[in-house]
Write a sequence for this structure.
């Protein structure tokens, strides 16, 4: 089946006895046992599994062309679970331009447990020189946050396979509609479902999808079930509802993203536009190879300094000045001040999550703010 069909049907796991076409929310924390002590409904206790979460995991595994998925209460928890599943003393390779929350986790929570090299993964030639005897994983984020760098998934896969490393990819910016890292050789795909998958800025969630069910995946499932950082049935219901329109929302995000990137690239107040769909993007050819469209995230450098950039985000009326991304409403932020004093993000960088409003209204709002 094609993506649009999977998105609508793959989460309909059960036909309820009351005839609901849309699966009801199963709030029960516990489930009946039968005379033999089994669980005829397939569920025992809601932390371990429940019908809404199983449906969410099924549709996400199918959309990402994976074998199974684990849903979590946030994207950060999804990533942390993966890091927790690695043996203490392991070394991992991660991108220099990495979602700052994960960088913070690795540097604080996993200090003394894991060692990490944060390197530029877009130049794949140098990666092998960082591999040590205790290296176990290459973590990739593409497109990256906030510089929209593109990492060549197929090239990373070759290196990971040669050295028997786990290849994991944070694919949040691409969504499962525009990029399926498993098809390029990734072992694990991660999404913050708070973003495009939820799509309405009203639910927090994260998900890991595996290419294969294996011993490492059992560890992840175990941390999910015993650790218990799981989404509620209602959160899962909201995500399942959102996923049904995900492919169509993503088309709108990508169409608006491309139009806005082109417009801003020609603007006299803008020094640079980072959007992988622009032929001027340094990794445009790789993006074209591994993505079917380029999404709704872009960053721009304003001519001038932090003050000039802050003026623009304070002057917009339609864009909401707020962090996060992937919702139907457009968001704008001065990224460096969100990330704090030790950030490497350029001070004149503005990150934009292009929503689904009419492109003419979005352009008009940015025009008046840049004027
Ligand atoms: C938001 C985000 C995360 C973290 O997800 P939360 O749901 O906020 O915990 C991880 N990676 C990327 C690329 C993100 O944008």
């Amino acid at each position: 089946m094609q993506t649009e069909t999977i998105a609508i049907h793959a989460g309909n796991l059960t036909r309820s006895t009351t005839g609901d076409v849309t699966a009801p929310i199963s709030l029960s924390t516990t489930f009946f046992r039968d005379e033999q002590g089994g669980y005829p409904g397939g569920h025992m206790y809601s932390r371990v599994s429940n019908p809404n979460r199983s449906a969410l995991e099924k549709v996400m595994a199918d959309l990402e062309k994976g074998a199974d998925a684990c849903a979590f209460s946030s994207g950060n928890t999804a990533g942390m679970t993966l890091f927790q599943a690695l043996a203490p003393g392991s070394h991992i390779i991660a991108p220099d331009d990495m979602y700052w929350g994960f960088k913070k986790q690795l540097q604080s929570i996993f200090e003394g447990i894991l060692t990490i090299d944060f390197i530029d993964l877009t130049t794949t030639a140098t990666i092998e020189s960082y591999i040590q005897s205790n290296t176990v994983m290459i973590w990739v984020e593409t497109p990256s946050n906030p510089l929209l760098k593109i990492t060549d998934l197929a090239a990373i896969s070759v290196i990971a396979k040669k050295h028997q490393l786990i290849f994991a990819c944070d694919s949040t910016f691409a969504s499962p509609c525009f990029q399926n890292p498993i098809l390029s050789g990734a072992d694990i795909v991660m999404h913050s479902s708070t973003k495009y998958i939820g799509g309405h800025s009203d639910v927090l969630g994260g998900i890991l999808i595996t290419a294969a069910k294996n011993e490492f995946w059992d560890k992840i499932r175990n941390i999910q079930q015993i650790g218990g950082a799981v989404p509620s049935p209602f959160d899962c219901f909201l995500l399942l509802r959102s996923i049904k329109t995900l492919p169509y929302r993503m088309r709108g995000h990508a169409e608006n993203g491309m139009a806005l990137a082109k417009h801003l690239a020609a603007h006299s107040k803008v020094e640079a536009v980072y959007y992988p769909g622009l032929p001027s993007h340094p990794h445009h050819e790789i993006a074209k190879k591994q993505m079917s469209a380029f999404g709704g995230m872009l960053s721009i450098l304003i001519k001038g300094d932090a003050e000039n950039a802050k003026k623009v985000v304070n002057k917009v009326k339609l864009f909401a000045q707020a962090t996060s991304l992937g919702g139907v409403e457009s968001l704008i932020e001065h990224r460096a001040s969100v990330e704090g004093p030790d950030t490497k993000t350029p001070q004149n960088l503005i990150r934009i999550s292009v929503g689904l409003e009419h492109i003419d209204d979005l352009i008009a709002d940015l025009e008046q703010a840049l004027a």
